[in-house]
Amino acid sequence: MKVSRFLVIAIVLGFGGSVLSSDRPPQRFAGPDPGEMDSVVVGVDSTYPPHVGRVEVRFCNDQPLLGVEVTLRTMHTAVTIDSVCFDDSRVQGTQYFGWTRDDSSGAVTIFAFSAEDGPIPSGSGLLAALELAYPDSLQGRTVAIDSTTILIDLIERTTGFTDTTMNGFVPQFSPGSLIIEPPCCQEYTGNVDKSIDGVVDIGDLTLLITHLFIDFDLVLPCPEAGNIDGDIEGIVDIGDLTILIGYLFIDAETNAPAACL
Ligand SMILES: [Ca+2]
Ligand SMILES: [Ca+2]
After folding, report:
1. Could you tell me if 202 and 171 lie in one domain?
2. Residues 208 and 232 in one domain
3. In terms of domains, do 221 and 149 share one?
């Protein structure tokens, strides 16, 4: 009984792999969106080398859902979705959730469906976070992340929701993007506050002291610039503060901030 129910749901949602085969893919998401309009929203986020890009995908549904399927691709071939993270996702408690990638197109399908544990309740929040890789040469570019539809073994992968009556429909979709910025540490460390003039002064010292001793939740605007002693692990700690104090007040030559890693 358990297996047969799973198969029915898998077939309807298109996760049956070779279970379905026909010349035309089934129109799984051709029904009406019940109640208020549901949505999938891809976020806009920025990153810089050497960090990976991270962009959240959120969804909103005003009625319980049996299944969610979101298929995404980046609009630049050199920017790839390397991984999908489900930490704090609304579908974490769902019986079946995960993601697959089509290596030929680079598209990623994020899916979740409930076979036995009840539907995904109405609400809004995180579906998953995309982790994106990019070459350093793309600094200064904004790369869009959009929905797409692909065919794998005659199974259509696209973006759609399925409610508890097996009605499949297309939610409103908002594309997102990854902004790739230049590295914040320019040549030498020490400009902890990321001031535009690049000067290392008492403002940087104040911020570093606050970060290390007063406000532990304070995230430095440029953590790489805080690694003033240039340790290879890039850690920002009292060793960096010691160098900065020496540079500003004792001997600038022997306490010169290290080069950016
Ligand atoms: Ca500064
Ligand atoms: Ca350090």
Report:
1. no
2. yes
3. no
- Mark the residues whose beta carbon lies below 5 A from ion ligand 2: 227, 229, 231, 235, 240
- Could you tell me if 120 and 30 lie in one domain? yes
Please give the Cα distance from 57 to 45 (Å, whole number). 11
Q: What is the pTM of this model?
A: 0.78
Counting ligands in written order, the one closest to the CA of 232 is 2
> Could you say which ligand is closest to the alpha carbon of residue 202?
1
**Ligand 1 centroid, distance to 179 Cα (angstroms):** 24
101, 224: one domain:
no
Domain boundary among 180, 210, 230: 180
Domain span at 15 = 2-180
Say which ligand is closest to the CA of 193.
Answer: 1
What DSSP line would sit under 35-52, residue for residue? Answer: SSPPEEEE-EEEE-TTSP
Closest ligand to residue 207's CA? 1
Look at phi and psi of residue 14 and say left if phi exceeds 0, alpha if psi is from -120 to 50, else beta: left
Q: Give residue 162 CA to ligand 1 midpoint distance, Å.
A: 52
Using one digit for the tens of pLDDT, what is the confidence trace for 113-140?
Answer: 987 778 999 999 999 999 999 998 999 9
Cα–Cα distance, 27 to 204 (Å, whole number):
58
